Amino acid sequence: MNDELKELRFSVNGKPYELKVKPKALLLDVLRKELKLTGTRTGCEVSACGACTVNLDGMAVRACSILALQANGREVVTIEGVADGDKLHPIQEAMVAHGAIECGFCTSGMVMSARALLLENPKPTREDIRRAVQGNMCADSGYVKYIEAVEIAAKKMQGGE
Amino acid sequence: MKDFGYAAPKNVGEAISLLTELGGHGKVIAGGQSMLVIMKQNMLAPEFLVDIKGISELDYIKYDKKKGLNIGALTTHRTIERSPVIKETYPVLSEMEDNLAVVQTRNWGTIGGNLCHGDPAGDPTVVFIVLNARLKIRGTAGEREIDIEDFYKDYLEVDLNPGELLVEIQVPPPPPHTGSAHNKLMVMKGDMGIVGAAATITVNPADGTCTGARIALSNVASTPWRSRAAENVLIGKVITGELLAEAGRAASAELEPPADVHGSSAYRKEMAELFVRRTAETALKRAQAQG
Ligand SMILES: Cc1cc2nc3c(=O)[nH]c(=O)nc-3n(C[C@H](O)[C@H](O)[C@H](O)COP(=O)(O)OP(=O)(O)OC[C@H]3O[C@@H](n4cnc5c(N)ncnc54)[C@H](O)[C@@H]3O)c2cc1C
Ligand code: FES
């Protein structure tokens, strides 16, 4: 009975899904392996790096450290669901234009942390941004440009330049 | 990770019946932020997980001027951090949450899970000890309440029987002219404290004497540590800089802290002295600022 599959109904990037998963399946595994949404990165897998960050009911969480079944009935947004079709989200646009992206491994997690921040707090201070991406490690130490890019995106979303 | 059975009961009653039925074979999971890390290492391999994360009846913060603060066990760290009533009435809890982990962990991890994990390095416990908190625990036999200090038995071991759930943390209203503070030694903000300290100080505004003191330390023993020795240095006296230093020395003297990659036992002892002194000083200033 221990590996009995359980029903998981949730929404990912606006689409409803009904899957059968093992209780021990992590949200990260289901997103990457079952749904083939590989933009969410597998980094440390022990809740230390933030590369696996997704938005769950609008909150930033680490997909490597949540049972997939805990997303039952909830809404997940991954990096694949951030842009509007071909039109990049202002956060993505600003990161590209500002040269924030180095190797890119941590980028999806950074975007998801920034997205959750701006959903909750559309006019963040620099300190708010620092705090929001504090859990996203960048091996290239490209933090400053990421933070500036989020600042730029927030201003743009507020209607400024 | 080993396979396990799984159920997500809808309310506390169902969760307790299921846990009771499973006897020692069931294990509670709340946010899983502590558990999954050790399950991945197979240091913990439960046969059956009873998932309580979705039980909304345990997700609340209630405040009453006379009765104090009641926090449901499934309230997330993030909810506590952002709660206006907590910022206003128990700011030390907001101060503690501000340094606890990162936002992703605070968004999903629960306060009850933190306390029940029994990690002596945990931050909330020491703060709740100095706030004189009690825990409400529910099982098939009904409810019981205990002093949070008595909850900790050993490293990662707490006073919970199979079939019991922590349901609520109760914090009494602080006496007038009371200040509290929490601080910890971190390499990066949000790290688990290498050593942490919390203090509550009450002063008599008429003559400035300290009428009450509670001091607790994290990550210096196999359980959270309350330092009565340090408290006794302060109680009944007008607190001076020298007395604060003496309280730090008294706290440190009784410790035999563990050593790990983050610090030797001797280093922890020194840091315990420093953090007790500093934290008690901040608590004192806050008590005095209440006029
Ligand atoms: C990267 C990282 C950094 C962290 N930094 C800090 C830090 O700086 N300071 C700090 O204090 N903590 C820190 N933590 C720990 C974190 O606070 C806890 O992981 C979290 O609060 C645990 O809550 P949870 O709901 O996820 O518990 P779970 O992991 O689900 O459960 C933990 C334990 O409690 C039991 N349990 C849970 N809820 C109940 C209940 N209501 N009744 C009975 N038993 C229950 C479970 O059976 C399990 O044994 C950190 C964790 C991570 C991953
Ligand atoms: S992969 Fe999840 S935090 Fe590193």
Which key phrases capture this entry?
heterodimer, A: about 160 residues, alpha+beta, Ubiquitin-like (UB roll), DNA polymerase, domain 1, 2 domains, about 30% helix, globular, B: about 290 residues, Uridine Diphospho-n-acetylenolpyruvylglucosamine Reductase, domain 2, Uridine Diphospho-n-acetylenolpyruvylglucosamine Reductase, domain 3, Enolase-like, domain 1, 3 domains, five-stranded antiparallel β-sheet, four-stranded antiparallel β-sheet, 11 helices, 14 strands, about 35% helix, binds flavin-adenine dinucleotide, binds FE2/S2 (inorganic) cluster
**Order of H and E elements of chain A:** EEHEEEHHHH
Bound molecules: flavin-adenine dinucleotide, FE2/S2 (inorganic) cluster
According to CATH, the fold-level topology of the largest domain in chain A is Ubiquitin-like (UB roll)
Structural class of chain B: alpha+beta
- Total strands of chain B: 14
Query: Overall pLDDT of chain B, averaged?
Result: 97
Given the C-alpha coordinates, what overall shape of chain A results? globular
- Rounded to an integer in angstroms, the radius of gyration calculated over CA atoms of chain B is 19 Å
Tally of separate helices of chain A: 5
Question: How much of the residues of chain B is beta strand, in percent?
Answer: 15-25%
Number of helices of chain B: 11
How much helicity do the residues of chain A have?
Answer: 25-40%
Structural domain count of chain A: 2
Beta-strand content estimate of chain A: 15-25%
Radius of gyration of chain A: 16 Å
